[in-house]
């Protein structure tokens, strides 16, 4: 069973992340989904509950929209509170050792804008180094992230976004099945 840390700050209005989650839920996988923005709208994370959820699963997926080249504030707060010394790192912090760390996110702008000469100057993979380092520091297995471009409702129709999201969900579901079988 995989754990999904859903970190969309306005999930009710989401097109892309909602379609990814719906696709995962329809995949037949056994999932636990924790919508942290809903659970902790005041940013007061229940550390014990979140750590217990992590301990129940071998694979942890972080699903979120890519905001300002990073994760939403609620997910950063979640990491700051939950990945503590003595739990996720440190001399006695090996509780997450060997667990799979999977980031899955949506990017509003088109892919062509994410390169050295584009508007955003760097490929999206360059913005994922903090994710990799977090996984490595917690002794987790870093799985290369999943993402897709073109989720801005100002640039793309809901049908276009949902089609891309269904593709992302199918790829992610296949990866989760492989990880769980390993």
From TrEMBL:
Entry keywords, A to Z: Oxidoreductase
Highest taxon listed in the record's lineage: Bacteria
Molecular functions (GO terms): electron transfer activity; FMN binding; NAD(P)H dehydrogenase (quinone) activity
The protein's name in its UniProt record: Flavodoxin-like protein
Keyword Oxidoreductase belongs to the record: yes
Organism taxonomic ancestry: Bacteria, Pseudomonadati, Pseudomonadota, Betaproteobacteria, Neisseriales
Alphabetical list of InterPro entries matching this protein: Flavodoxin_fold (IPR003680), Flavoprotein-like_sf (IPR029039), KefG/KefF (IPR046980)
Flavodoxin-like fold domain mapped to chain residues: 3-171
